[in-house]
Amino acid sequence: MDRLIEAIENTQNPSVVGLDPTEALVPPQVVASFADEVRDSVESPEELPAAQLAVAYFEFNRTIIDAIADIVPAVKPQIAMYEALGPAGVDVYTMTCEYAAQQGLYVLGDVKRGDIGSTAAAYAHHLSGVAGGESSETFDPWHEDAVTVNPYLGTDGITPFVEAAAAADKDIFVLVRTSNPSSSELQMLDLADGKKVYEHVADLVEGWGAETVGSHGYSRVGAVVGATHPEEGRALRARLPPTFVLVPGYGAQGGTAQDVAGMFDEQGSGAIVNSSRGIIGAWKKTGKYSESMTADEALGLVADSARQAALDMRDNLRVAVYR
Amino acid sequence: MDRLIEAIENTQNPSVVGLDPTEALVPPQVVASFADEVRDSVESPEELPAAQLAVAYFEFNRTIIDAIADIVPAVKPQIAMYEALGPAGVDVYTMTCEYAAQQGLYVLGDVKRGDIGSTAAAYAHHLSGVAGGESSETFDPWHEDAVTVNPYLGTDGITPFVEAAAAADKDIFVLVRTSNPSSSELQMLDLADGKKVYEHVADLVEGWGAETVGSHGYSRVGAVVGATHPEEGRALRARLPPTFVLVPGYGAQGGTAQDVAGMFDEQGSGAIVNSSRGIIGAWKKTGKYSESMTADEALGLVADSARQAALDMRDNLRVAVYR
């Protein structure tokens, strides 16, 4: 986790921008501006909207990345938004990751993969890449510095990711206590031994990371803990000293800087807070958007609004965390 | 689940062939035969092996599909094997799904997706496709009849998939008791109320499907229960009458026809058993392979061996299940 922690220190900003585009978050004139470009690239007319959205998502993401790359340490593209468009969307996911990495950002791929051991080994190529054959270079198609992983299948579904992370100087984040309302249906169940299910998972997570603690005291196996659960987050911070925490659910889902403060350690490290719609959709709340804008004007508004929202979030977190 | 059940009845074969290619499972001369074809399609030399494997996987899959399409009802491509090659692999995953569907097979996409509600809605486009804009057709980039889903996030991570399945006459299968050794670390924990975690999940699964029971008595929300857990499988069959069961772990992972028999209902319905390596890797166990074979000869051996292995599995299941 050292690279992420150092990127946070360099920016004095423990936040990550979620690059989760949807059709509603991209100004329509930006989407429309790609109509001609994609027309010859599709095989049948029903493919046009997905192809057009895919290229618009990349332009939108590039605009956001350029606007925030000097003030935030990391981005977290959510692959579901891209898979929703089919393989063309997956291409744009990888292009987004590559572009963000080129701009110096730590790229946290929110893919929530999880499977049995032999299959997890295949997914772990997200981190390890593919051997390059006669080329001495490894081919890294995904360009991710970390991925999120689901714990439901236990240790043998996690080990391949941990090994790939250690070999490639990368990290993983395991779902522990997710931000959504119904997460309690499973995660908050009381076990016979007195623990909650999520506490049991948390203890597994600490074990999975034990061999990979870096120079800042945190292992390569982080935990996902929603900002919507401030008390459990505080308890987990105390329970898992070597476990870095990724905190979704800030902003649009209701979490505040005060809610997440308890997930940081005494030095103001140990956690990074994600905001997606609050940053990339900030342009919709400015009152400055107009349908008559050109695509470039709309992207300019997207950029300015995203940067301001990212600065506001940074400043709010600094006040709450660097106490 | 009606379409799958009818496909099983038509073939009298409750088995599904896992299309999970790996480099070790594709004869090397088949991979080598695509060296020239891909050379111009890559941007840098380290991409060559992945690009070459991707096209070889499709040729391999097509060979298997042609060899078994008249005797099995369904295939289950495991997307991890394709993601391991990057976006080019994902393309081949969708091409494989499309080709299998064209041959009349039910396509069960083993993607094990799971996320919070708004993100699950994006993943659910795997089933619903993308609106086709001015075209009246919906664009279906994934060509899946069903997907596997992870329950760790609770109801709001599942509902979008159930709604998409109902709208598109498709299905989902939720992980309940997976086949891998360490699955017990979480799934077998004792809850304070006396249930095991997997039993609690099983009860959630039954509830998630309750509104979607079809004409054969099974809902659109199936459960994944490993062949390596015959006693729990038998208990789940009794516990969840309207829940169809997908059974991985047969063959290479150790499950036998007797182990899975208890997961079927009294009419010999209610479950489908997956075999991956046992079918697609059957050529390696024949003793007939030779490095001097041409690519076409090797694919011929792959086809014959896969068909024979699929017939053997079908016959073993018929004896054990249609009792």
Automatic annotation (TrEMBL), chains A, B:
Pathway: Pyrimidine metabolism; UMP biosynthesis via de novo pathway; UMP from orotate: step 2/2. Pfam families: OMPdecase. Keywords: Decarboxylase, Lyase, Pyrimidine biosynthesis. Its EC number is 4.1.1.23. Residues 14-292 form the Orotidine 5'-phosphate decarboxylase domain. The active site is at K112. HAMAP family: OMPdecase_type2. Belongs to the OMP decarboxylase family. Type 2 subfamily. This is Orotidine 5'-phosphate decarboxylase. It comes from Bifidobacterium callitrichidarum.
